[in-house]
Design brief:
121 residues, mainly alpha, 2 domains, 3 helices, 86% helix, 0% strand, exonuclease activity, hydrolase, Exonuclease, dsDNA, ATP-dependent, nuclease, exonuclease
């Protein structure tokens, strides 16, 4: 009769380490592959983050340039058109002057029309 300990040793020795060893190697290879992919993705993330920062800096610079050019354009236009009113100034006197000018033009037109009718009669 074979003692139970011997049977256990024989059963242990009968196990094929190749299956477990193959699985272990496959898992180790997968871990290595995932590590390499992770490193590549981290590199891409770093490059994209740096590009995003450069783009944001450029956008900020362009916004500042646009504001400066808008102000410069506004000053040039107001100077070339001899505009003296500012947005905060009251525009009512100007509107009143325009209304008076239009009224005088209408009166002049009516007067001219009447003179034409008198001359024709």
């Amino acid at each position: 009769m074979v003692p139970p300990a011997t049977r256990r040793v024989e059963a242990y020795q009968a196990l094929e380490p190749g299956v477990n060893q193959s699985r272990l190697l496959a898992l180790e290879n997968e871990v290595k592959k995932l590590g390499e992919e992770g490193a590549a993705l981290r590199g891409q993330l770093d490059a994209l983050t740096k590009q995003l920062q450069r783009d944001e800096n450029e956008a900020q610079s362009l916004r500042q340039d646009e504001q400066a050019l808008t102000q410069q354009y506004g000053k040039a236009v107001t100077a070339s058109l001899n505009i003296t009113l500012q947005p905060q100034d009251d525009i009512q006197p100007w509107l009143d002057a325009q209304d008076e000018h239009e009224r005088q033009l209408r009166l002049l037109s009516q007067r001219h029309e009447l003179q034409g009718q008198i001359a024709a009669a």
